[in-house]
Amino acid sequence: MEMDTGDTTDVIVVGCGIIGASVAWQLARRGAVVRCLDPHPGDGSTYAAAGMLAAVTETTFGEHELMRLNLEAAAMWPDFATQLEAETGQPCGLRRTGTLTLAFDGDDRQQLRRLHQLHVEWGLDAREITTDAARQMEPTLGPRLAAAIWAPGDHQVDPRSAQKALLTALMARKVDIIERAVERVLPGTAVTGPSRPGVVDTNGQVHRADLVVVAAGWNSRLLAPGCPTRPVKGQVARLDARAVPTFQLTRVVRGLVQDRPVYLVPRADGEIVVGGTSEEQPDNRQVTAGGAFALLRDARALVPGIDELPVTELTARARPGSPDNLPLIGDAGPPGIVLATGHYRNGVLLAPLTAAAVAARWADGKLPDSVSAAHPARFHPTHDHEHFAVP
Ligand code: GLY
Questions:
Q1: Using CA atoms, how far apart are residues 24 and 170, in angstroms rounded to an integer?
Q2: How far apart are CA 368 and CA 349, in angstroms?
């Protein structure tokens, strides 16, 4: 039997990974009484993410709107990190390293230059440098490289550190974090009583609020009707460079190795995150022999010195994919339900932008124009944005 707790909560956030936690934090900063529900906060794609703030180097053909969102989000990260660190005294691991993108062979060079041409046409800050110049920047790069592009503004954060800081900030701001899954989302229009929006958790408890934000990664599709998220599995290896003092890697290094993308993200503490496969597979969290082998083989083609490093972790999680690779930020259709999901390869990067947009949706009653390309109504052509607004 469902029990109504007679909540005085303003906003319920379903999912407390880096998106849900950022949304909850920004809502709390704007004065909302917030409750988050998540059985394992931060154990989804946030746990696997390398944390590249790759507004330039993730930009590809046909994704001009996503590029715009990514650039805006990248510009927000320094303040976001500064505020979070000031509130909690905990680091987010923001490192202003820039990113080198490498081509392994001649075919990869052709591909990379084609993409670079697009970046130049779109006015992005990236320039081709010689492979010798790349090697001067990062002496551990391998001997066989065909081309290099330098993107000085693509930095990184440590998603696990940022998540930890966010949870600390939420607790300090008295956000209620309930470690339970949500079974059902209840649309509603009323401001009091049983027709208020809400959720039912796995204990059958009903939680009510003025607004329910679904930030449950690819699982959002199971909670919000018509939410077109899907799991895109990524496998990631973590290496420990502290074990080999002669190994040096400072900047994010990514590249194409015989057409396969790979990246190495060096943390300040010596951890190297190697990622990431993109597989249209269920979220089974299984690292496969083939996945791990391919990652490490391609990473060592660019940075052979990783051969000596201990492998400390192999992780598999699923990103929340969307049909057009743009996130879903805005009213979901059923009244009182807002989506903050579908961030695919850019969840960490887009967290501050998404959080600010959802907080504005609650505080000002509307989303900022800057995120209109991410409105879920684009997948419901018979509706316009007006129909999706909560009355
Ligand atoms: N942003 C990198 C990835 O999703 O693998």
A1: 7
A2: 18
Give the atom of ligand 1 at the shortest distance from the alpha carbon of 347. Answer: 1
Residue 281 three-state SS: coil
How far is 350 from 327, CA to CA, in rounded Å? 9
Residue type, 386: E
Tens of pLDDT along 360-372? 999 999 999 999 9
What is the CB neighbour count within 10 angstroms for residue 376? 26
Where exactly are the structural domains of the chain? 3-46+160-229+324-379, 99-152+230-321
Distance (Å, whole) CA 319 – CA 341: 10
Q: How many CB atoms lie within 10 A of CB 384?
A: 11
Q: Could you give the angle at which helices 347-363 and 64-88 cross, rounded to 10 degrees?
A: 80
Enter the pTM of the model.
0.95
Instruction: Please report, to the nearest 10 degrees, the dihedral formed by the alpha carbons of residues 322, 64, 265, 38 taken in order.
Output: -30
Atom of ligand 1 nearest to the CA of 346: 1
Q: What is the pLDDT of residues 106-135, one digit of tens each?
A: 999 999 999 999 999 999 999 999 999 999
Which tokens hold the place of 329? Answer: 């930020």
Task: Give Cα 162 to chain centroid, integer Å.
Answer: 12
| Fold of domain 99-152+230-321 | D-Amino Acid Oxidase; Chain A, domain 2 (3.30.9)
DSSP per-residue letters across 59-70? --TT-HHHHHHH
Protein residue with least CA distance to atom 3, ligand 1: 345
Distances (CA, A) of 346 to 53, 70, 207: 8, 8, 30
Report how far residue 1's alpha carbon sits from residue 306's, in angstroms, rounded to the nearest whole number.
56
Alpha-helical regions (H) of 52-176: 64-88, 106-121, 131-137, 159-172
Confidence band of 5 (pLDDT split at 50, 70, 90)? low
Domain 3-46+160-229+324-379 in this protein, CATH class: alpha beta
Pick from 273, 322, 346, 348 the residue to mutate for probing ligand 1's pocket: most ligand atoms within 8 Å of its CB.
346
The amino acid occupying position 189 is T
Determine contact, residues 345/64, Cβ cutoff 8 Å.
no
Q: How far is CA 357 from CA 83, 108, 289, 369, in A?
A: 17, 38, 40, 9
